[in-house]
């Protein structure tokens, strides 16, 4: 059995991200006959962990340290991580942020343990035009690492190859998913629309008030729920106030996994007008909840074909028209939701995804 340390530090509570969720969900499911995964946890947010995730990781080996900006705690956490890395056989490092990559690489150098890097998305600072210094460091680390687990998304793989690839790099494809069977639907609907995600221009989140403003012409009581604790939430709230849409748009900062499932179940349509995605948990989660999903037809969302309604980028008026069509046609909305659930079970359930990840890791270690 190979011991594999998962880096960097994984945080919970309000710091919880899609990559942490994916790491916990998938690596807690992989057969321990082949690998023993040691998850590196941030002590400061460990007590904020949702009980759902606590149950997931209780049988995983754990390394505890400190993340955050406190340099003394960070150094203390680094020392703990390095000690555990030296006891491991391999390191898998996530690329959520630049410093995540740098942290994993330094631990790899000092521990002399092989490093595999996971790529879920091409971050903005991976492009030379956006941050030349970060790009050069990424390129150096990636050329030295050579083995990559990359999300099975042609747009992301092509961008990665165009930016960094050389003949010595080897890519092993992984997939994304959700615990489909833990999601459900309900006939008792609270919201017409629901959005979950970071409030940013990349997510097109600032168009949500425009969407509701136009849908109000047909239904003055239209209701949208926005669940987000990331990005420019206050800026979006200001726009909602300016447009007098407070009675139509509700905000919730942080929800437990149990609460998230209930809110999805009690909504009619998942709206996600994003411009670019890498790892996305929320689309499969919405599909698992039997919700039709309205998307723009962008390259990074090509993997979603059934149970979704795609619109030409970035025709917002047509996007609104498609939402209205679903709201006014219950039978079609329910049928599309059923197809979404079926597709989620077939392609995105963690039972399938974890098996694929297990195979990809085996291939990477043997390369």
Can you give a write-up of this model?
The strands form two sheets. This protein has a seven-stranded parallel β-sheet, sandwiched between helices. Strands 10-9-8-11-12-13 form a six-stranded parallel β-sheet, sandwiched between helices. The mean pLDDT is 93. With 367 residues, it is of the alpha/beta class. Helices cover 44% and strands 19% of the residues. Helix 4 packs across helix 5 (98-111).
Order of helices and strands: EHEHHEHEHEHEHEEHEHEHEHEEHHH
Distance between the termini: 17 Å
Strand % is: 15-25%
Strand order of the biggest β-sheet: 3-2-1-4-5-6-7
Q: Which descriptor suits the 3D outline?
A: globular
Class per helix and strand makeup: alpha/beta
Q: What profile does the largest beta sheet have?
A: 7 strands, parallel
Number of helices: 14
Q: Any low-confidence stretches, pLDDT <50, length ≥5? A: none
Helix amount, in percent?
A: 40-55%
Radius of gyration: 21 Å
- Report the count of strand segments: 13
Mean pLDDT: 93
């Amino acid at each position: 059995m190979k011991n594999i340390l998962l880096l960097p530090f994984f945080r919970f509570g309000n710091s919880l991200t899609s990559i942490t969720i994916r790491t916990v969900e998938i690596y807690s499911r992989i057969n321990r006959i082949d690998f023993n995964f040691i998850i590196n946890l941030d002590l400061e947010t460990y007590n904020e962990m949702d009980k759902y995730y606590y149950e997931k990781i209780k049988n995983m080996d754990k390394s505890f340290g400190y993340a955050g900006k406190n340099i003394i705690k960070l150094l203390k956490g680094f020392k703990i991580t390095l000690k555990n890395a030296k006891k491991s056989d391999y390191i898998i490092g996530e690329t959520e942020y630049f410093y995540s990559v740098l942290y994993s690489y330094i631990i790899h150098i000092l521990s002399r343990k092989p490093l595999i890097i996971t790529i879920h998305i091409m971050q903005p600072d991976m492009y030379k035009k956006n941050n030349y210094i970060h790009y050069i460091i990424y390129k150096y680390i990636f050329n030295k690492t050579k083995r990559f687990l990359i999300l099975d998304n042609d747009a992301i793989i092509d961008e990665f190859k165009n930016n960094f690839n050389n003949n010595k790099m080897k890519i092993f494809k992984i997939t994304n998913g959700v615990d489909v069977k833990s999601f459900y639907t309900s006939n008792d609907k609270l919201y017409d629309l629901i959005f979950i995600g970071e409030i940013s221009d990349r997510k097109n989140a600032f168009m949500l008030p425009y969407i509701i403003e136009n849908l109000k012409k047909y239904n003055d009581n239209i209701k949208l729920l926005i669940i987000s604790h990331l990005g420019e939430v206050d800026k979006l709230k200001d726009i909602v106030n300016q447009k007098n849409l407070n009675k139509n748009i509700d905000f919730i900062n942080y929800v437990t996994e149990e609460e998230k499932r209930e809110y999805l179940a009690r909504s009619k349509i998942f709206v996600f007008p994003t411009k670019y995605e890498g790892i996305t948990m929320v689309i499969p989660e919405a599909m698992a909840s039997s919700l039709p999903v309205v998307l723009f037809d962008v390259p990074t969302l090509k993997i979603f074909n059934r149970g979704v309604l795609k619109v030409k980028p970035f025709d917002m008026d047509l996007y609104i028209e498609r939402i209205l069509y679903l709201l006014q046609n219950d039978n079609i909305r329910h049928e599309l939701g059923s197809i979404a659930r079926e597709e989620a079970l077939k392609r995105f359930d963690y039972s399938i995804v974890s098996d694929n990840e297990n195979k990809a890791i085996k291939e990477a270690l043997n390369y």
